[in-house]
Amino acid sequence: MTTQVSNDGNAAANILSNFSISNKEPEKKSNELGQSAFLELMITQMNNQDPLNPQENTDFIAQLAQFSSVEGLERLNSQFESFSGSFMSNQALQASSLVGRSVSVPTDTTMLTPGGIVAGSVQLEQTTSKMSVSIYDDAGSLVGSVPLGLQEEGEVVFRWDGQFMEVNGELLDWSAGEEPLPPGEYRFEVNALIDGQSEQLDTSLSANVNSVTLGNNGEIILNLAGVGAVNIGDITQFN
């Protein structure tokens, strides 16, 4: 009787044990083929090959070489991703030092800050006898038109503080009025007489960096006052 009970107890324990095992959550298996798994597969392949038609040693060597190459590439990719992430972080850290500074970007609109100066530049493909800079406020009203006269081929640089205009280091006998214009957003339009016709030229203007953003694709974006978001690669000059 005792033996029967003992056997029943063992049987019950075995049933419970099997039930417990069968109800365990199956372990998640990786789809990746590691080095140890690859070697096991190769040994199994060797053990089960046709003795009358065995696989050549060169075939095994080729498999090992192929696996080593793939493993090396994966390791290289992993190291490169780590290096790339570190490089982008360092770039973002260096770019953050630009906050509060002024940079120049291709644009026709920027912000005149209190006590600040707007620096601009245009590239002349040939000498012109007549050139002018027109300035518009954020409402689109013309607040000043500055005649620059004769300008030589090359880069023409101007600076404006809301009242006076300086061109290529020379202060012009012109002002927007007795009092400087208030800080705010202004648009600049530069025209030059080229081959007898008036042409509008592309301008680069200075703007203050308000903040720096690191994009999803690793691009560094500068948020400029009066301009908006600009890729750091579009900066033409750090003032």
UniProtKB/TrEMBL annotation:
Q: Which residues form a coiled coil?
A: none
Family (UniProt): Belongs to the FlgD family.
Function field: Required for flagellar hook formation. May act as a scaffolding protein.
Key word Metal-binding present: no
Q: Which Pfam families match?
A: FlgD, FlgD_ig, FLgD_tudor
Q: Which residues form the FlgD/Vpr Ig-like domain?
A: 118-192
Q: Which UniProt keywords apply?
A: Bacterial flagellum biogenesis, Cell projection, Cilium, Flagellum
Q: Upper taxonomic classification of the species?
A: Bacteria, Pseudomonadati, Pseudomonadota, Gammaproteobacteria, Cellvibrionales
Q: Does the keyword Electron transport apply?
A: no
Annotated FlgD Tudor-like domain residues: 90-236
Q: What is this protein called?
A: Basal-body rod modification protein FlgD
